[in-house]
Amino acid sequence: MRLFGTAGIRGTLWEKVTPNLAMDIGKAVGTYIEGKTVVVARDGRTSSVMLKNALISGLLSTGTEVLDADLIPTPALAWATRKNGDGGVMITASHNPPTDNGIKVFNGDGTEFYVEQERELEELVFSGNFRKAMWNELKTVKALDVIDEYIGAVLDFVNHETELKVLYDGANGAGSVLAPYLLREMGARVISMNAHVDGHFPGRKPEPRYENIAYLGELARELGVDLVVAQDGDADRIAVFDEKGQYVNEDTVIALFAKLYVEEHGGGTVVVSIDTGSRIDHVVENAGGRVVRVPLGQPHDGIKKYGAIFAAEPWKLVHPKFGPWIDSFVTMGLLIKLIDERGKPLSQIIREEIPTYYLTKKNVKCPDEFKKATLERAYKVLEEKLGKEVKEVLTISGYRFQLKDGSWVLVRPSGTEPKIRVVVEAPSEKRRDELFELAYETVKKSVEAAMKK
Predict the structure, then answer these.
(1) pLDDT of res. 406
(2) Angle at 336 (CA atoms; ends 331, 342), nearest 5 degrees
(3) Residue 415 has pLDDT above 80, yes or no
(4) Number of CB atoms found within 10 A of residue 9's CB
(5) pLDDT for position 414
(6) In the chain, is it the N or the C terminus that has fewer CB atoms within a 10 Å radius of its CB?
(7) Please, which residues bridge with residue 289 across strands?
C-alpha cells in the first residue's frame, strides 16, 4: 500500500505527512462511515494540532459529526471511540522521531482499521470520490473530556489497590497526562520523569527500546522502586524494569501475560507477531494453549481470525476482555496486580516462571525502494548458509528461519521507517552471536548490492 504501513500512516512532516493528506484522510473516513460520528485526538508533537485541525475539516466536509478529545494517549482514543463514536482517528507518529507524524484510524469498536479497510481508504483518497455535504448537512465539533472516565474504566477492570513504589517515564509524550494519575489512584507511590508533554522530546527518544532508556536501571536501584514503566510518544507501548534495575525483555513481558491468560482460561489461543520469541511458546504450550504468529501491526486481525484470548507484539499488548486495542495502561495495572498477588518481586517471578533465551535486535538502514530487492537477496544467502539447519521458513512478514535447535533468525522490512530489522534468538549466547553476525552482515551486504543496481 502507498500510504498505510504496519501501524497506520507515518512519515516525515511535509515529505509524506501533510495537512492536505490529513484533510483527505478526514474526507475518506467521513465518506467510509457515511457521515456519522468520529472521535478525534492527537499526541503532543509540534505538528499535531495543525494536522488534527486539517483532519477535522475533512471530516466536517462529509457531514460527519466530530468529537474532539484533543491531547490524549492512543489507548484512550480507542476506548473513547468504542464508547462515543462510529469511528476514531488519532494524529500520532507513535515512537517515531519528532520530525515525523502520522494518522491511525479506528473502527467503532476500538479496533484499528483492518488491512482490507486500509486498502479501501487508500482507494478513496486516490480517487478523490469523497462525499460532499450540503450546507444544511454540515455538523459541529464538540469537545470530549475522556481522561477521568478512561482512568475509571481501567481501575474497574484491573480491580486492585497497591502500595508498590513505581518509577514512571513518560518520554514527554501523551501518556504523561494520564499515567501518573492512574498509578496514584491505584495507591502506588509514584515518581515521574519526562512527564510533561513536549513535542521536541527533550528527555529521551520516544521509542522505549533498551538503548534509549538504559539509564532507568540505575535510577531504579538508587530510588529503591519496585517497578519501572516507560512509554512511547502516544503511550501504546510499554517497557519495564524490575526492582533490581534489570530491563525486562519484551518477550518476557508478553510471556508473563500469555501464561496468566491461558491459565485463567484453561487453554486458548495467543496471537503474537512474527518477531517474538520461543519463551512465549514454552509457557503457553505448557499451560495448555497454542501460539499463532501474525505479521507486525496486525494483532487485531489475529484476534478476529483466531478468537485469541490475548495478543501482543514487542512493547504492545492487547487485552481483549478490556478492549481489542493495544493498551499500555491496562498492562501496567495488571502487572502491578500480578506482582502483588504473587507476593514476590518481579525478578523472582520471572526467574521462576519464564525460561531464558538470548535475543538480539538491530536495524540496517535501507531506503524503502530497495527493501524488496534487499530481502530477496538476503533470503537466498541465508537459505544457502543455514542449509540443513532450517526446520521451517515463515514468510508472513519478511523471512523467519526456524532452526532445528530452537533458534530462529528474522529479517523483515520496517513498515514505518527506512530500515530492515534483524532479529535473532537462540538457547545460548554463543549460538545467538554466531547467527546474528551471519544475519546482520548478510543484510548489510544485501542493502549495498541492491543500491548499486
Answers:
(1) 84
(2) 120
(3) no
(4) 25
(5) 87
(6) C
(7) 268
Lowest mean pLDDT among 45-49, 297-301, 354-358: 297-301
Q: At what angle do helices 115-127 and 19-32 cross, to 10 degrees?
A: 110
What CA–CA distances, in Å, run from 202 to 48, 171, 198? 17, 8, 7
Give the pairing type, strands 165-169 and 141-143: unpaired
- For residues 25 and 27, give the distance between their C-alpha atoms in angstroms, rounded to a whole number: 5
Measured distance CA(142)–CA(39) in Å, rounded: 10
User: Among all chains, which residue has been given the C-alpha cell 502491578?
Assistant: 336
Q: For this structure, is 94 an active site residue?
A: yes
Cβ proximity of 292 and 268 under 8 Å:
no
Report the alpha-carbon distance of residue 258 to residue 283 in Å, rounded: 8
Q: How does residue 125 score in pLDDT terms, banded at 50, 70 and 90?
A: very high
* Catalytic site residue from 47, 48, 94, 397: 94
State which H helix or E strand residue 285 sits in. Answer: helix 278-286
What are the cell numbers at 31?
Answer: 465518506
pLDDT of residue 7: 82
For residue 263 the three cell numbers come to: 491459565
- Non-local CB neighbours of 221 within 8 Å, separated by 6+ positions: 244, 245
Q: Taking CA 189 as the corner, what is the angle to CA 186 and CA 192, rounded to the nearest 5 degrees?
A: 105
Rg (CA), the chain: 22
pLDDT of 2 > 90? The answer is no
Which grid cell is 247? Answer: 530491563
| Burial call 239-272: b when 16+ CB within 10 Å, e when fewer | bbbbbebbbbbbbbbbbbbbbbbbbeeeebbbbb
Angle, helices 328-342 vs 147-158, to 10°: value is: 30
